[in-house]
Amino acid sequence: MAQADVLTSLAAVAVHNHYCMPVVNESTDIEIVDGRHPVVEKVLKNTLFVPNDTKMDHHDNLLAIITGPNMAGKSTYMRQVALICLMAQIGSFVPAKIARIGVVDRVFTRIGASDDLAAGQSTFMVEMSEVAELLKNATNRSLLILDEIGRGTSTYDGMSIARAVLEFCADRKRLGAKTLFATHYHELSALEGTIPGVKNYHIAAKKRADDIIFLRKIVQGGADQSYGIEVAKLAGVPPKVIRRAREILAELEQGTAAPAVEPNTPSHPEPEQVGLGDLAAQEVAAELRQLDLNTLTPIEAMNLLYQLKRKL
What we know:
Low-confidence stretches: 267-272
Oligomer: single chain
Helix content: 25-40%
Strand content: 15-25%
Structural class: alpha/beta
Strand order of the largest sheet: 6-7-8-4-9-10
Number of helices: 9
Shape: elongated
Largest sheet: 6 strands, mixed
C-alpha cells in the first residue's frame, strides 16, 4: 500500500507539473535542459520560474565556479541540480525538458550559515566541520554543492580556504568530483584555463541607473561585479547609507580611500606610541623646570640653550 501510494503520488506530481522522464545510466555525466526547482517554482506568485541548463562530466565540465549578486538565484540553481539528480535516482520524473543523469553515489552540500550554540561552535566552525566531512567522504562519483566557502572569516583566509577546497575537488588524483561552487571571491574566476575541467558561470543581471534586475539565467563567464550595494538598496537600507557606500566604493576602486575618523576627534590625533623625540622633550622640560632664571648670566643662558638644543 505504501509503495503504491508513493508511486501514484510521484505520477500525479509529474503530470500536474509537466515533468519529464529522465534517462538514468551508469555514466558520470549530468545533462539537464531547462531544469527547474520543484519547490520554488510552485511558491512563486505572479512570476514565471526561469529554467536553466546544466552540463557536468569528468572532462571539460567537472567543476563550475558560479558568481553573481546575492538574491540572484545561485543557491536555487545549485539546489535544483541536486534535487533533480536525487529525484531521478528514486524513480521519479524530474522538473526539466530533458534530463540524462549518470548515477551519483552521494550528494554532499555545504549551503547556508548558522552557528551551533549547544556545541559551542561558531558559524565558521560549523562550515569548516561540514567541509571536512565532505572532503573525507566524497568520491569521484559524488555530486558536491558548495555555497560561499570561507565567507565566515577574514577575506584573505576565506579566499585561501575556498581556493584550496576548489583545487582539491577538481584534482582528479585526489578527488575529481562533479562540483557546483558558488562564491563571491571573483579572483577565483582566474582558475578557468589553469585547472582542467574548471568553468566559470554567473547569474545574469541588468543594471539600470542605480537599480538592478535579476534575469535568473545561468550564462558562461565570470561576473563583472557583485552588485552588493544595489542589493542593499533593495533590502531597504537607508539612502544616506547607500550614498556613502557608493562614495567609499569609488574611493576603494581608485585606491584613495581614507581611514575612518571617529566624530569629535582631532584631525591629527596624538600617536599612542612614545618616540625618542618625545622622551628628549620630556627631559628638556624637566631641566627647564629646575632652573632658577634669576641666577643665570646671559652667557650661561646661551650655553644652556645650546646644550638643550643638542638633546632635541
